[in-house]
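quick one before i forget lol
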Amino acid sequence: MAFPGALTQRKGPRKVTRGGTIAALDVGSTKIVCFIAKVEEAGGIRVTGIGHQVSRGVRSGGIVDMELAETAIGTTVHAAETMAGEQIREVLVSLSGGQPESQTLTVETLVTAPEIGDGDVRRALAEARKLDVSPDAALIHSIPIGYAIDGSRGIRDPRGMVGERLGVRMNVVTAAASPVRNISTCVGRCHLGVEGFVMSPYAAGLSCLVEDEMELGVTVIDMGGGTTSMAVFNDGKMIWCDSIPLGGVHVTNDIARGLTTPVVQAERLKTLHGSAVAAVSDEREMIDVPQVGEEERGLSNHAPKSLLVGIIQPRLEEIFELVAGRLDASGVAKAAGRRVVLTGGASQLSGVRELAASVLDKQVRLGRPLRIGGLAANVSGPSFAAAAGLLSYALQQNHELPVLPPAEERGTGLFTRVQHWLRENL
């Protein structure tokens, strides 16, 4: 499925059989992660290769230096391949930036046979070609979130049912074409093909959520280094997603400026002493703050911890207020329910869960990868949720219907048209 003028980047997940190999690449602003996994019996996944290192050439989820990013991605993938003992050719890639836009579209088509089949569903999805979407967009996801037969809604799977008109509600997610193309080019320069792109909060949700949360309504907030992205799940499917260009790096930079300390030291202070919520003892607890340009450690300033917390808290409050604003404007706030799952590296800061609960007025828990075997303790935390979720996405054969190629790519010859008809109707 492709919209007129839109850049179609994904082919849909290939069918992965038992013993097959899956490769996932999470290109973040602070780190790059590559997981290689084998599919086991009963649909299980076991990670056989892991590579991760500090990100270079990436900012706010987009490539800003092709050479640096290519080197970082190549090194990460090589480490995973060495551990797995095999070479990969294609990867699923996460997308956290790119100004994603999530729309709910409704299309309808006539049923051509007594019973609704795959061809009817594909024709209904193909109707979305006629809807106007920006020519500068890349199609990332087209997720059926509900069906209707002759106006009767609430149908999960219409195949095999009887009716005259089939309606489909879809969550169509697009992103700016240039950032997507740049990431694709960078991965290609590492001699890898892009099997597909997956929005980071979607992958994180597949990794961290339990089935009841997906069914009843939940918001996943993936707090990365350069972006904070969010997705709403309801009735087992992602119905909306968005992203804001603020994350943990911005908190670190605020600390560096506010305490006039090097960025490396600001990250250290945030990790060791930082908190999103003030405590009574903060005023009495003193911390050493190395100063910019001072080589001797004895020249460090001493500052109360309250000063550090006073820098961290406003920025995180701003992030959660922006998330709340996007949720309110999306029209899916009711479907999102009252539950939030925080994940991503920046969610691990002390007090973030409590601050999120206060600003969003929802129940909040921290999420980490579930249902993935072979993950060591150091790569099974919230910061690896998106990478692990890419592996889960690869097994979602029927969760998201394959994207059809653009009409101009299908050809107009008689043989091509016959092939297309057979593919849709048999």
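fyi The chain has three domains: 1-101+176-209+370-426, 102-175, 211-369.
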